[in-house]
Write a structure and sequence with these properties.
There is one protein chain. The strands form two sheets. Strands 1, 2, 3, 4, 5, 6, 7, 8, 9 and 12 form a ten-stranded mixed sheet that branches. The chain has a two-stranded antiparallel sheet with strand order 10-11. The chain has about 260 residues and is α+β, with helices and mostly antiparallel strands. The protein contains seven helices and twelve strands. It has one domain: Isoleucyl-tRNA Synthetase, domain 2 (Alpha-Beta Complex), CATH 3.90.740. Bound molecules: ligand ZZB. Ligand ZZB binds next to β2, β9 and α5. Belongs to the class-I aminoacyl-tRNA synthetase family. This is leucine--tRNA ligase. One of its GO terms (molecular function) is ATP binding. Keywords: Aminoacyl-tRNA synthetase, ATP-binding, Coiled coil, Ligase, Metal-binding, Nucleotide-binding, Protein biosynthesis, Zinc.
C-alpha cells in the first residue's frame, strides 16, 4: 500500500506532552506524521486524530527533524531510507496518545493552516503511522468523529474550540455535492463513530465517488478531475518537503521479515 506521509509540524504542545517531550528532542523540529491515501483532500484538513490508548514515540530522523508516530511506522520508515543513517530507529521519548490531545500543529496545504490534535476511537495502531489527518468533507469516519466530539466534548475531555472548524468543501461530486462525507452520513443515517460497519461502507462509496467522479474545487489544480489532481498535489507536497512516499508492507512481508 503506497501512502503519502504528511509532515505536520508541532506549533504548541499540549501541557501534558510538553512535560514529557520538550526537553528530549535536542532542538529538533517535531512533526506528527500521518499516512494518507488522499493527498488531494489535504486542503480540507480541520484537525488531526490519534488513539488515546496508543503508544507513540518521537523518533530522530536526522539532526534537525523528529517524527511522532508508532514504533512500527518508525521501523518501516527507517528501512525505507527515510532516516540518517538509513535503518536507524532512534526513539527519543515515548508518549501515550491521550497526552497529545490539544496539541496545535501545522496542517500542510490546508485552508486552515493550524489545527488541533483530537481523539478518535477507531484509530488502528497497526495501520499507517497511528496518526490520522482529518478531512471531514471527504472522510465519513473523520466527519462522524468530529460530530461526536462536538456533541460530547466533556466526555471526550476536549476544549470545544479545538473541534470548532467546520468541514471545508474541497471536491465536488455529482451525486453527493461539495461535501461528500456529511451527505453520506445523512443518507446512510449514521449516528456515531461506533457504527463501524456502515462507516466502512460509506468510506468505500466516498473513495469511489471522489476518485472517479470528483472535481477539485480549491487549490492549484482547481477544476481538474481528482484522478489527475491526486498525483500533482502529492508531488507539490513532496517538493515542499511537507510529505514523502511511505509504503506499508503487506502482512505476509511483515511476518516473513520478522
Ligand atoms: C486523509 C483522508 C481524507 C483519508 C479522505 C481518507 C479520506 P484504508 O483505505 O483503510 O487503507 N487512516 C490512516 N491511518 C489510519 C489508522 N491507523 N487508523 C484509522 N484510520 C487511518 O484507509 C486509509 C485512510 O484511513 C487514510 O486516508 C486515513 O485517512 C485513514 F477524504 O487520510 B485518509 C473515503 C476516505 N476519504
Amino acid at each position: 500500500q503506497e501512502y503519502t506521509g504528511l509532515k505536520m509540524e508541532v506549533v504548541e504542545w499540549s501541557p501534558a506532552a510538553k512535560d514529557v517531550i520538550a526537553s528530549k528532542v535536542g532542538g529538533r523540529k517535531v512533526f506528527l506524521v500521518a499516512a494518507t491515501l488522499r493527498p488531494e483532500t489535504m486542503y480540507g484538513q480541520t484537525n488531526c486524530f490519534v488513539g488515546t490508548g496508543i503508544k507513540y514515540g518521537v523518533f530522530a530522523m536526522n539532526d534537525k527533524e523528529a517524527f511522532l508516530c508508532t514504533l512500527r511506522a518508525a521501523r518501516n520508515m527507517a528501512f525505507q531510507g527515510l532516516t540518517t543513517p538509513r535503518g536507524n530507529v532512534d526513539q527519543l521519548v515515548e508518549i501515550s496518545g491521550d497526552k497529545l490531545i490539544g496539541t496545535r500543529i501545522k496542517a500542510p496545504f490546508s485552508l486552515n493552516p493550524e489545527v488541533y490534535v483530537l481523539p478518535m476511537d477507531n484509530v488502528l495502531a497497526t495501520k499507517g503511522t497511528g496518526v490520522v489527518s482529518s478531512v471531514p468533507s471527504d472522510s465519513p469516519d473523520d466527519c462522524q468523529t468530529l460530530y461526536d466530539l462536538r456533541k460530547k466534548a466533556t466526555f471526550y475531555k476536549i476544549d470545544p474550540s479545538w473541534a470548532a472548524i467546520d468541514p471545508v468543501p474541497v471536491i465536488s461530486t455529482p451525486t453527493y455535492g461539495d461535501l461528500c462525507a456529511p451527505a453520506l452520513l445523512t443518507a446512510m443515517k449514521i449516528q456515531s463513530q461506533k457504527d463501524t460497519k456502515q462507516l466502512a461502507e460509506a468510506k468505500e462509496v466516498a473513495y469511489k465517488e471522489g476518485f472517479y467522479n470528483g472535481t477539485m474545487l480549491v487549490g492549484e489544480f482547481k477544476g481538474l478531475p481528482v484522478q489527475e489532481a491526486k498525483g500533482k498535489v502529492r508531488e507539490r507536497m513532496i517538493e515542499a518537503n511537507l510529505a514523502f512516499a511511505y509504503a506499508e508492507p503487506e502482512g505476509f512481508v511483515l511476518s516473513r521479515s520478522a
